[in-house]
Amino acid sequence: MDTNKNNNDDVEFEERVKLLKSYIERVTNGEAMEDVQKDFKDNFSNVAAKEIAKAEQAMMAEGVPFEQIQKLCDIHSVLFHDMTDEERMERLKEEMEAHKQLTHVKEEKIENFDDKTSKKCIEYKNTQGHPINVLCEENIAIRDLLTNVDSVMDDDSSRNNLLEQLLGVKIHYNKKDELIFPLLKDKYDYPGPSDVMWAVEDEIMDDLKCLINEFDEEKLKKVLKRMEEMIYKEENILYPLCVDNFTDDEWIQIREDMDIYGPCLIEKLPVWDKTSESEVEFEVIDDKISLPGGTLSLKQLRAMLNIMPLEITIIDENDINRFFDEDENKLFKRPKMALNREVYSCHPPKVMKMVKGLIKQFKEGSRDSMHVLSQVQDQKALVNYYALRDENGEYLGTMEAVLHLNSIIENVEKGKMGPIDL
Question: How far apart are CA 108 and CA 36, in angstroms?
Fold first, then answer.
């Protein structure tokens, strides 16, 4: 064994760790990212990605906070800037191999970004309505927005409008954060994109909000550069990783869920012919209730109805009281003997006419809700009435939901934000 060589390797490794720590410290202390990136490129452009990852892993083992190590995400991206497409692809293969070592992903779950993956990415990018197509179309619009910055820099109104549009990129980020990252992290054992990219996105959004309140041209340029680099990371690292792992069914579900978030800087989300209106699924097996939104046990349903900060009453399509929540401290008392009896018998004559008129409107479809401010003794309340309808709009009954207001009003008047006691 060549002990001299081993000793030299150990020394080189220790030097790499020291250098990476120094880069993080310099950025943390406010030094220009471009200056740190230049030194990083001078020292690490010929170092294999797995060696950089090994050094990062050693830093984490020493207790260096992840929030500091994530700064290397931006520093490290400089290695891609001057490469050809072939060089970038080779480097990305090394990056994914390094990721395996850094996050302990099982060997069989790693596939390099080969020609097959590249072709598949291009296919998805050109398939109208596929999630990759949607995200890439939005990236084109984001790039266009970034290139228009100089033209509005001298006009305060136009500049603020641009900043508001840039904040709207959060819609694009949300699609990744809530549809892609959890799947990569929880099912496919890739925590890296979620832990790093999501954190960088939050920093970008925070900086944009600060710029609206206190504009700084140099700071804006840095934010714009981070947004440009985020696009590159998405299209050259994140999307190929997803293509390597996600199933057709997962892509379909992602596309269907994208409708919740809406378009980002494009007129509308393109339709994918593989998706269709999902049929409403409803079944009860044993104690499990399956709905389009997921599954609940009967115990969970009961606990949910009883813990909600509302007094709930359900009247069926024939105007019969069918359900009261079990809270004994109701503002409006609901005796159990009133269950399975006509709702009108529970109201005094002066109110009965209003109740009949409201339910008639619900049945006719001319009204879907009504909200009444009320007060019983010292407690103010908002009494909400809602028409219950099925997926075809057929009337199923009426729900009354009473919300107590005193504690809410008190907290609002005190200007409280964040967690409160109700």
Answer: 36
Q: What is the DSSP letter of 398?
A: E
Judgement on whether residues 243 and 323 belong to the same structural domain of the protein: no
- Give the span between the Cα atoms of 235 and 237, in whole angstroms: 6
Question: Are both 221 and 317 inside the same structural domain?
Answer: no
Instruction: Lowest mean pLDDT of 61-65, 88-92, 248-252, 325-329, name the range.
Output: 88-92
Query: Which of 279, 280, 282 has the alpha carbon at shortest distance from 290?
Result: 282
Say how far apart CA 49 and CA 45 lie, in whole Å. 9
Residue 22, amino acid: S
Bridge-based pairing state of the strands 379-389 and 395-404 = antiparallel
A 10 A CB-CB count for 12 gives 11
pTM summary value: 0.58
Distance, CA of 353 to CA of 46 (rounded, Å) = 83
Rounded to the nearest 5°, which phi and psi values hold at 168?
Answer: -65, -15
Three-class SS of 348-375: CHHHHHHHHHHHHHHHHCCCCEEEEEEE
The answer to whether 312 and 327 are in contact (CB under 8 A) is no
What CATH number did the domain enclosing 366 receive? 3.30.450.20
Query: Minimal CA–CA distance to 331: which of 411, 420, 400, 412?
Result: 400
Please name which of 43, 6, 51, 48 lies closest in space to residue 22, comparing C-alpha atoms.
43
The alpha carbon of 325 is separated from its chain's Cα centroid by a whole number of angstroms, namely: 33
DSSP one-letter code for 178: I
Question: Using CA atoms, how far apart are residues 416 and 409, in angstroms rounded to an integer?
Answer: 10
- The residue that leads in pLDDT, 56 or 372, is 372
Beta bridge partners of 323: 314
CA geometry: angle 281, 287, 292, nearest 5 deg: 20
Number of domains composing the chain: 2
341, part of any domain: yes
Between 37-41, 128-132, 248-252, 387-391, the lowest mean confidence (pLDDT) is in 37-41
In-domain check, residue 366: yes
Domain, as residue range, for 83: 16-261
**Cα separation values, 349 from 25, 34, 344, 354, 362, Å:** 76, 77, 9, 9, 20
CA distance 368 to 387: 5
Chain-centroid distance of CA 237 in Å reads: 19
Is 347:355 a contact under the CB 8 Å cutoff? Answer: yes
Name the least confident of 27-41, 52-66, 156-170, 245-259.
52-66
